[in-house]
Amino acid sequence: MNGLSRRSMAALIAGLVVSLAGLVLMLASPFAGSVVSENLWLVEPLAVAGAAGIAAGLATAVAVLTLGQRSRAAAESTKMRQQWSQLTQHYFDVFGHDMGRPIRRILGKEREVRARLAEAQKKVEPAIQELLDEIEQQAPSFRLMVSNIQVLVQLEDQAARAQVAPVAPSQIVRNVVDRYVGIGRDRGVNISWWSEPAEFGLEYSDAAALDHIVTNLVDNAIRFATSQVEVRLTRNPSHFFVRVWDDGRGIPEHYLAHIFDRGWTPEVAGRQERTSSGLGLYIARTLALRSRGELTVESVATAGPGHHTAFTLTLPRANPGDGIGNR
Amino acid sequence: MTTGRRDRILIVDDEAGSDIMNSVRRKLDGEGFETVVVQPQSKFAAGHDFESEALIAIETVRPSAVLLDVRFGDHPDDQFKGLGILRKIVEKSADLPVLMFTQYSRGPHRDAAVAGSLRFSSSVDFIDKLASPDEVVLRLRRLIGKTPVLIQIGEQFLIDGEAGIAYAVEGDRRDPIRSIQGMKFSILLELASAWYRSPGELVPFWKLERFSEGEDSRASLRVRVREIKDALGEASGRKFGPDDLIVNVRNRGYVLVVPR
User: Fold this and answer.
1) Element of type H or E holding A320
2) CATH number of the domain that B225 lies in?
3) SS3 assignment, position A239
4) Which of A61, A199, A304, B124 is at a distance of 20 to 30 A from A153, taking alpha carbons?
5) Closest chain A CA to residue B140
6) Domain span at residue A216?
């Protein structure tokens, strides 16, 4: 009986009491009941009621014990999963930190080389400049990759929910644009952002998820843009929207159905070397859905002018009481 | 970037001498900040040495902001020491902006620190250690929250908001661009200030139209922007096209783009 809840224990005791009462009725029936036949006293109504009581009581007791065992096993399993999930997340948190060490060293050396070249005021060969730029430009991709792995681990935890708290979406968009504006400049792509209204204020949302989704969308846009990426933050009474637009060549219609698939990249279809993991848009959409929102895409892939791609993230302006801090 | 008065940035990091930190310090110096590094006396300083030195330095150096690491070595007590230091800074000087410079820019420890910092209504932000020095400077600027008197745009132009003069810069030489005055200067200053806070931020038309006259203020604004671009181009010996310097973004507003 160990581990049974109070309610289950009460049901078990009630079942046993009913069985006992049934047994008493059966035993008392030859003396207290109305005799139908000397040899067939068992069909006497009181005896039948007693038998039914025994059966119902025992069935209740068995059901309580079986269900109790199952729920104990389920609780144990959930607890183990949570512990495993926390352990795994902690592991990947530390992993994310430690993975940064070698890349920090590489980046540090690259910047040191740049500084010395600038100090010497020597003309740098284009190939060397290109190499240094490539190292610098790969840093945000590396950051995003490590971060994607961490988020992927969190998403494996079925019990995990969005961490809803007051956040400033414009601040998040601004921070993401800051991260990519220099890379855009090096690639000949201008990134601009704005919000409507200009003073956007706070919304109840999952800040980490919002940052991660917008980062993936901007990272994606900047890789495919021709010269412009625009990020627009708007809202209506029930939702707020982040639209990331690029003037790239667009996504052919037959690819659109696959772009949110885990591991899919345009290179997969073209059998070329992959330039990304194909996780970004999958993770972005999964996070959007987990936050009770959605992520949609609209693209025009024409040979002439007008080609573009726009991803729109829609998130609810959640009730402050909804799930704050739950996990 | 030149600021009117040099803001001091206190750096609290056990790897302050690393190449990556050197690149950040170089950038901060170049942008007109003064960097002060917390250096405990002991060669084998642990987290608590950095903590006490940092708290003393806040009193003596009076920084405008603190750039603070999270992890101070591999000892379990020091893995998140920076968050403890942050708490003490916030308790002591709630108004002092702190930029957490860490590889732990995600995860539960960050969330706990953010929640803690929100309680104290302080200016705390987190940035990844792999961030570019430009990004670090931008975040610090916004945390400090001041727009300087002098804003340098790329290597070619300098805007003096107080004197109301735009300069073309070449090496140590500054030539005033006399044709940018009055409303044209106000438009340029508005764009430059937005760019200084956030380089990709669009300035909507309604914010700029107050500096233009006539029945059709949008058309008038367009003309003024064209004149500003021509004047800046003439002063720097360049020709700025529609996608250069001041860009009209899909009839929403203008954004300033640093010339390459």
Assistant:
1) none
2) 1.10.10.10
3) strand
4) B124
5) A175
6) 161-327
Residue type at B170 in one-letter notation: E
DSSP, collapsed to helix, strand or coil, labels residue B18 as coil
Cα separation, B55 vs B89, in Å, equals 7
Q: Would you say the ipTM is above 0.95?
A: no
Q: Does A95 touch chain B (CB under 8 A)?
A: no
Question: Containing domain of residue B42, as a range?
Answer: 8-144
- Give the closest of B134, B255, B258 to A192, CB-based: B255
Give the residue among B122, B115, B137 at the shortest CA–CA distance from B23.
Answer: B137
Considering the domain architecture, whether residues B114 and B210 belong to the same structural domain is answered as no
Q: What is the dihedral of CA B232, B233, B236, B238, to 10 degrees?
A: 160
A107: nearest CA partner in chain B: B20
Q: What is the pLDDT of residues A143-168, one digit of tens each?
A: 888 888 888 887 877 667 777 888 88
Q: In this structure, is residue B211 part of a structural domain?
A: yes
Q: Are residues A169 and A138 in the same domain?
A: no
A156, A174: one domain: no
**pLDDT single digits (tens) B225-236:** 999 999 999 999
A80: its two tokens: 């183990």
Residues 6+ apart with CB under 8 A from B176: B165, B166, B167
Among A160, A188, A207, give the residue marking a domain's end: A160
Residue where a domain stops, chosen among B144, B159, B181:
B144
